[in-house]
Amino acid sequence: MRDLIQEIRELQIESAKSDKYEVDVAASINAIKGVTAERPKVSTAYADVLLTLDSGHHTWLEVKMSHTDNLSNPRMFYNGKKWVTSYKTSAAKVAVELLNKSAQTKKFIKSIAEFSKIAKPEVPTNKGGLNNTNAVPLQVMKAYFEQDSVNRYILNVENYDLGAVVTDHYINGKAEPAEYMQAGDDFYLIGKTNPFKLPKNIPVLSGKGNFRVRVSTRSAFYEVQAEIKIAEMPKSKYSLMPGTTKLNPFAKL
C-alpha cells in the first residue's frame, strides 16, 4: 500500500509540472500579437492548448515536457479470444493489430493462463473488467510480474514508423486536429498543413522507435497500454520553452 501511495504522489507531482509547463508555453505564445493561446477545460479527446488567430481561425497545440514523453497511450484488453480496444484512434488500431499477430504476446497469454490456472484468461484494462468470470485477478497479475524473469512489456516491435502513427493520432484521432507540437525545447509541425503559415523551415514531426505495450499494476486495477516514444525526433530551430534561446515560431505572425 505504501508503494502505491508513493506512486500516486509521484504521478500527482508530475501532472502538476506538466500543467505548469503548458501554462508557460501558452504564455510564450500570448506574448505575440495576433494569436491567443488558452488551456480550455476539455477532455483528453482534445490536445493541450487551443490556438486562435485574430481572424478567428483556430487549431490545437500538443505540449510534451520532453522528447521521452509518451506521444500516445491507448488501452487494450484481451477478451479471452483476441485483443481489442474501445479507443478509436489509429494508434489503438495499430496496437491491436500488432498484439494479435505477435508471438511475444501469444506467449504472454499462454504463460498467464498457466500461472493463473484460468484456461481462457481475460486481461481487462479497467476496474470493472476485473469482475468478469475469467478475468485474471489483480493480485495474481501483480504476483506474475513480480517474478524476476518476467518483463512487463508484452509487445516490443523495433524500428517502427511511429511518426506516421502519432501524426494520424493527432490529426485524425482527436476531436479537432492538433497541427503543432512543442516537445522539450523543440517545436514541430504535425503533418504538413501548417494552417497558421508559420516559418517553412519548422520540421515536421517524424521518427522511428519501438512500438511497445506494457501491463501496469500500480493502481486498484491493471492497465494494458501502448508506449509510443520516438527514439530521435528532428532538431528544430524553434521553441516555446520558457528561457529558450531558440526562435519563437509565432514571432512573425
Q: Give a short account of the largest sheet.
A: 5 strands, mixed
**Helical segment tally?**
5
Overall helicity? 25-40%
Average pLDDT figure? 91
Binned strand content: 15-25%
The total beta strand count reads 10
Strand-pairing-aware structural class: alpha+beta
| H-E string | HEEEEEHHHEHEEEE
Task: Identify the strand order in the major beta sheet.
Answer: 1-2-3-7-8
Report low-confidence residues grouped into runs of 5 or more.
none
Distance between the termini: 52 Å
Overall geometry comes to elongated
Over all CA atoms, what is the radius of gyration?
20 Å
What would your notes on this structure say?
The chain is an alpha+beta fold. It has 5 helices and 10 strands, in the order H-E-E-E-E-E-H-H-H-E-H-E-E-E-E. The radius of gyration is 20 Å and the shape is elongated.
Summarize it.
This protein is 29% helix and 21% strand. It is of the alpha+beta class and 253 residues long.
How are the secondary structure elements laid out?
Blueprint lengths: L1 H29 L4 E4 L10 E5 L4 E7 L12 E2 L4 E2 L5 H12 L1 H14 L21 H8 L7 E8 L1 H11 L5 E6 L2 E4 L19 E8 L6 E6 L25
Parallel strand pairs: 3-7
Antiparallel strand pairs: 1-2, 2-3, 4-5, 6-9, 7-8, 9-10
Give keywords.
253 residues, alpha+beta, 5-stranded mixed beta sheet, 3-stranded antiparallel beta sheet, 10 strands, 21% strand
